[in-house]
Amino acid sequence: MKVALVHELLTMRGGAERVLKILADMFPDAPIYTLLFDERKLGDWFPRERIRTSTLQKHAELINFPFSIFHFPFGFNHHLYLSRFPGAVEAWDFFDFDLVISSSSAFAHGIITNGKPKHLCYVHSPARYLWDRTHDVLERADRGLFGGLKRRHLERVFHDLRLWDAEVADRPDALLAASKEVQRRIALYWRRDSDVVYPPISDFWLEQAPDRGGAEHPYALIVSTLVPYKRIELAIEACRRTNTSLKIVGEGPDRARLKRLTHPLVEFCGYRTQEELRGIFANASVTIVPGEEDFNLVALESMACGTPVLSYQSGGPLETIVEGKTGAFFDEPTADSLSVALRSFKRSDFDSDACRARAKEFSRERFEKQIGEAIASLMQ
User: What's the predicted TM-score (pTM) here?
Assistant: First the structure.
C-alpha cells in the first residue's frame, strides 16, 4: 500500500509535529507533504529527502534572500501567506497513492483526492484563529502603528478562509479527533462525526522513572511553544505574586514580548533535548498549563516524570489530568485565579507513581493500534 503523509507547516516543534513523527515512523517509505519546511529546526526529525514542499517554499526563500526563510532579521511571519495556503494544498497530486494520512490544524484536511486514494485526516483542531479565537487574533492585530490596516486585511482573509474551511470539511473520507474537545469543535464547525484517538506520549518518557535530583530551589515549570494563545504571561505574573521561581522551556515568536514581562524569578531555558527535559520535569514542583489546550502532551510528559500538573480547567487537560491524584485545575484564565491555585498547590499532596501510571495509559502502542484499526476500517 502506497501511503503519503500531509502536515501544514513544519516550522517548529510542537505536539502536532510529535504525532506526525510517529506516523512517519509507522510509514517509513511515505513522503511528507508540507507547505513550508524549516530544516534547521526539524531536519533531525524529518529527513529532507522525505519532504515535499509547496511552491510557497521557494517564493518565501526568494523574498528573504540572503537570509534563511525562518531566520529573517525582522521575523518571518508565515501568516503573510494565509490566503495562498488553500490553493497550495489543493495543488498536490496524490493519484498514485492508495492512502493519504493528513495531520491537520488548519489546511491539510483540504487536499483533493476525489476518493482515489482514501483520505484519513487526524485533526488536531479546526483552525482556532478562524473560529473560536478569531476575535483575540484580530484584537492583537489591531495594535501598533498599522494596526487598523492589519485588522481590516485579516478580517477579509479570515472570512474567505472560513468559507473555504467549511466547504472542504467533507473532503476527508474519515476524521480522527485528537481529543473529545476537538471532536466537539469538529461537530460544531464542520457538522461531521469523528472518532477520538488521543495523541501518544513517546516511549522515551515511559522507559524509566527519572531520578529526582532534589533541587535546592524548587521551581514551577512551563514547557511550551512561545505563542500568544498559550497565555504564558499568566504564569509569569502568578509566579511574581507568589514569589515562585519559574523555568520556561521552549522557543517561539512570542519570546520577545514575554521577556519584557519577566522578573528575576523567571528563567528562559530555550530549547532542551529530551534527556535534559526529563531532569527539568523531575525536579520541578509543578508543571503549569496556563492556556486552553486542544490536548497537551506536555501534561503527560510531566506526569511520566512523576511531576503533577496545574492546568486551566478547559480543553484537553480535562481528559488527561485526574484531579487530586495527578494534578489540579484553576477556574479562570487570569493571573488571579492561577495565583490562588499556585499558593495552595503542594507537590507532596500528589503521588509520583500515580502520575506515571496515568501517563502510561496514553502509550504509543495504543495509538498505533487505533490508527491501524482506523486504516483497516477505511480501506475495507
Answer: 0.85
